[in-house]
Amino acid sequence: MAASKPTNPTETRLDEDLDKPSTTAPGDGPADTTDPDERAVSATPDKGAAAQAGHGTVNAVVPAPAKPAPKRASKERDRMETYTATRPDGAEVTIVRNIETGESSLKGS
Fold it and tell me: Does pTM top 0.85 for this prediction?
């Protein structure tokens, strides 16, 4: 029976294992992550356990606590842009876009 080869992951995520190498997608480094909200912090690896398990390298980064979302003071302070546009049927409408959130609304018929 042929030995099965481990497959490479398609995404790289940080993990808490400090006694074996991190698992990364091809082309990613040990502290890389494909999650844009995930941050890495250094940690003290368990080199002894990794060596006993036969690993030549060991993971030395773990996920940092999630950053809290910034609090918005109020919508009244958001920057807004307003402009007019012509619909395909020729009617003129006003578009209001909140620059802070990207939210748009349409005024007019």
Answer: no
